[in-house]
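Hi V.,

You were right to ask for the full record rather than a summary. Here it is.
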Amino acid sequence: MNKFRRKCGGQVTAELMFILPVFMLMIFFVLEYGNIAYHTIIANHASYEFARIGSLVAVKTPSGRPDRTVITQKINQAKQKVFGTKAGGIGVAVKVETTGTDPMYKKHRHEDLVVTVTYPVHLLFPGTSYVLASEPRKEGIRKIKTVARMPIEKAYLSSDTK
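Predicted structure:
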């Protein structure tokens, strides 16, 4: 009975060697997408909080103009507290946009603070940087850019006239 049996001992090993790299690469991509999604949530939340902080400290006097240096300083302080040593790699751009004037108080302008956060994500798994990384790909970093817009808080003065 044993003399009709063929020897196939290396077949399983050969098939495994063909399938295992593809399977592992698929697993790495799924895990890397999870890592990128996690860091995207962090970047979105950071841009929202930085815009909120900047909109609250932008104006010192009622119906006054926003001070970009104060906004940038407060956002950088918050960035340092939140991200610690990694704060240097995170870019924050601040822009003030006028969206209109108040029909009742001509001196009172409606302004929005637009905060753009550029957040670098270091890719963890081998092979994924060829597809998922930003240029230059050999660094293995994906840059996530998030934007948050927040109206600047201003107080009215009763002496504001039409």
